[in-house]
Amino acid sequence: MQQDRHPVLIIGAGIAGLTAAIALSRQGHPVRVFERHAEVRPLGAGLILWSNAITALRHIGLEPEVQQIGQPLSTLAITGTDGRVLGRTDAARLSSTAGAQTIAVHRADLISALLSHLPEECLQTGKAFASCTRDGSGVVAHFKDGSSETGDVLIGADGLHSRVRDSLHGFEAPRYSGYTAWRGISPRPDVALANPDASTETWGRGTRFGWVPLTNDRVYWFAVKNAPEGESAAEDSDRAELEQLFGKWHDPIPQTIAATPDSAILRHDIYDRDPRSSWGHGPITLSGDAAHPMTPNTGQGAAQAIEDAVVLASCLSTYQTVDAALRSYEKTRIPRTSMITTLSRRIGSVAQVENPILCWVRDSLSRATPESVTLRQFEGLVNWNPPAEPATRLTSTPGEAI
Fold first, then answer.
1. Residue 46 and residue 75 in contact, taking contact as beta carbons nearer than 8 Å
2. What is the Rg, in whole angstroms, of the alpha carbon atoms belonging to the chain?
3. Would you tell me which of 83, 170, 238, 347 could form a disulfide with 250, CB atoms 3.0–4.6 Å apart?
4. Structural element, H or E, at residue 259
5. Is 8-174+273-382 a domain of CATH 3.50.50.60?
6. Is 1 exposed, middle or buried (0-12, 13-18, 19+ CB in 10 A)?
7. Beta strand pairing status for 218-226 and 207-213?
8. Which pTM does this prediction carry?
């Protein structure tokens, strides 16, 4: 590796930015990660890492770490508010077909694991991105504190409200989905469960509740309802609203809400963006939610960010120029992420119907759909192969090649 090469600059230290930094560094690229907060805050609740995410993490050597912090899932089920099963998917069989487990993790645990694998001194906090300018074939990132950094590549991994995306394409507000969501972590309630390693999602009328087991006797849960954008909780109490909406649903939903501390209940409106035909230009591109924010209905947001990191590192190690590498990365990733964004939006529109007749039709169709059909649908999402490792790393003049 040439010593006068500028680093890859990554804006944002979430799942997308940290995974990209690890993948790139393990391919021999110097990296710098810039986080706008004074420290990396592992906020959030839980998430499911489907088999495709685990396959991607295996590719960069992180599968054992995630297995240690995660809970493998054996079954995925959709139920009615009375607990009757509307549809079931054998997650263990799906994992066997895909060649990797489906694992639920606490987002804070995943962020901590990623931070532990970062190259030393590559992370800088308190660095809010302001703008970027071209410098020959490279790029200069300018920060709000007046500092700047020169790199061969700049990756915007700064989330839904990405400043890098705005600098590339102009400001455009994200699309509100029409529903809001609560998330939380609670101790596992003391309720007998037929399958404690199963994840369930319960469908009501314009409402849903999901329950996902985690390690250390914890549960990740989420609740969704149709609502105007920016709506405040009734009487400023999220707990009161949750108990009103879901308190009479099947076990262990009421017990899970009751066991969750007020401080552990998060509420956010749900957004996505229409897919783009291009993400960047020149030495600049996007990754994760900055590139393809999607509603959480397929559970693929984190997985797609992790896939991005693996493909990006491969392209920057294969192609002779930065522009060729980044455009190949985008050409590879845009069709898949666009498909999943659209699918996730469609699932949300079905799951959130309120009309009683449409709900009856939806539930009846779910019960009538064979599990084999559901498995085939999931396989299209989770059966993913990382790019082959380049036989040799191509090099060129400094500032031109990575």
1. no
2. 21
3. 83
4. helix 253-259
5. yes
6. exposed
7. antiparallel
8. 0.94
